[in-house]
Amino acid sequence: MIASMIPLCGTGDTFLLALVGESRSDLAGFLLAALNSLVVDYVARQKVGGTHLKYHVFRQLPVYPPTAGDVQVPWDSSVTVAEWTAERVRGLLMTTHDMLRTDLNTQGLSEPVIWDDESRLQVRCELDAAFFHLYGLDRDDVEHVFTAFPGLRENEIKRYGEFRTERLVLEYYDAMAEASSPKSAHECPADASTGGMTLRG
């Protein structure tokens, strides 16, 4: 499952479009993060039989309803799920001047975010950990989901000597689980406003 934002344009019949209504444009980042989460990708892998994600299969994927974005984040009760995810998605998307002109640039960034692979990995892993929590998966479930990504495991072990994505996601997952208790708060190493990335200029 690979989802992205595209400019307003025509598309082919195999290009599935998901449109967020103008009244809830604030949910665009939340929807994009959910569709790209490992949870949804895992389910898609159980259903997709070819190279195209068909509409009837897409309709079966476990995508949260819009009202889920209005719920407070368990590990940070000061923001809603939509606000928390949108802050991080903005850091991943605002890498070009074209993206700065979209509705997602609610903070009015004037310069694109500098692309940094390490920072992007950290933010993506934090988002994946969050959706594991939001979908109600326990730690054993999370470890099982990673067994469905043997190619990613093999490539990262060759490159880094470990399955780095799994380790980082589990670290974020554990931190969020601990922070969900009223006595603690989730400390994110990334700056939420830009996803821990540096602005150009």
Report on the structure:
The structure is a single chain. By secondary structure, the chain is mainly alpha-helical. The chain has one domain. Strands 1-2 form a two-stranded antiparallel ribbon. Helix 4 runs antiparallel to helix 6 and helix 6 crosses helix 9. The C terminus is likely disordered.
Helix content: 40-55%
Distance between the termini: 34 Å
Computed over alpha carbons, the radius of gyration is 17 Å
Oligomer: single chain
Number of strands: 2
User: What characterizes the major β-sheet?
Assistant: 2 strands, antiparallel
Q: Segments where pLDDT lies below 50 for 5+ residues?
A: 185-201
Strand content: under 5%
Run of helices and strands = HHHEEHHHHHH
What is the tally of helical segments? 9
Mean pLDDT: 84
Number of domains: 1
Coarse morphology: globular
Strand order of the largest sheet: 1-2
Give descriptors for this structure.
3% strand, disordered C terminus, mainly alpha, two-stranded antiparallel sheet, 2 strands, 201 residues, 46% helix
Short description:
The protein has about 200 residues and is mainly α.
Task: Itemize the secondary structure elements and their pairings.
Blueprint: H1 28-35, H2 38-47, H3 55-58, E1 72-73, E2 76-80, H4 81-93, H5 97-100, H6 117-134, H7 139-146, H8 150-160, H9 164-179
Antiparallel strand pairs: 1-2
Helix pairs in contact: 1-4, 4-6, 6-9, 7-9
